[in-house]
Design brief:
Largest sheet: 5 strands, mixed
Shape: globular
Strand content: 25-35%
CATH class: Alpha Beta
Number of helices: 3
Structural class: alpha+beta
Strand order of the largest sheet: 1-2-3-4-5
CATH architecture: 3-Layer(aba) Sandwich
Radius of gyration: 17 Å
Number of domains: 1
Number of strands: 5
CATH topology: Trna Endonuclease, Chain: A, domain 1
C-alpha cells in the first residue's frame, strides 16, 4: 500500500468511527470527554491503562490502571456547571461500595498478588473552559 493509500484508508476509517464519540446526549459526551482526559492524565503520570469502562458482574469501572504492582480503580466524574457541587462529591457511599465490590472481583481473577487502590479523577469545566483536572489518590479505602 502506498503512503497516499494508507492516508486515505486512515481518513476513511476515522470518518466511520468519529461518530461514535459524537453520539448520545450532551451529558454522556461530556462524561466520555472527562474519561479521555483522565486516561491521558494517568498516562502522563506513568500509569498503564489496563481497561476503560470495564464491566465486572454488573459493576462498571471507568478506568483500571496499573502503576508497578498497584492496580488503581478510578472513578471519573465530570461537571460543566457548579449546580451539583464538585465532581468528586458525586462519588457517594453507594458508588464507593460498588467500586469496592468490582475491585475485589477483579483482583480475585488475577493470577498474581497486587495492591488495590481506589482513586477519583475530577474534571471540572465550571470555572475554566479548558477544564480543571484533579487526581485524588486513595479517595476511599477498601473494606477489610
Amino acid at each position: 500500500m502506498t503512503l497516499r493509500g494508507l492516508v486515505r484508508a486512515v481518513a476513511d476509517a476515522w470518518a466511520r468511527l468519529r461518530h461514535r464519540f459524537d453520539k448520545g446526549p450532551p451529558h454522556q459526551r461530556l462524561g466520555r470527554l472527562g474519561e479521555r482526559l483522565a486516561a491521558n492524565l494517568l498516562r502522563a503520570e506513568g500509569y498503564r491503562i489496563l481497561a476503560r469502562n470495564h464491566k465486572i458482574s454488573g459493576h462498571e469501572v471507568d478506568i483500571i490502571a496499573a502503576e508497578g504492582d498497584l492496580v488503581a480503580f478510578v472513578e471519573v466524574k465530570t461537571r460543566s456547571g457548579g449546580g451539583f457541587g464538585r465532581p468528586e462529591e458525586a462519588v457517594n457511599h453507594h458508588r464507593q461500595k460498588r467500586l469496592k465490590a468490582a475491585g475485589q472481583m477483579y483482583l480475585s481473577r488475577l493470577k498474581k498478588r497486587v495492591s488495590l487502590r481506589f482513586d477519583v479523577v475530577s474534571v471540572d469545566f465550571s470555572r475554566n473552559p479548558k477544564g480543571e483536572i484533579t487526581h485524588i489518590r486513595n479517595a476511599f479505602f477498601p473494606s477489610r
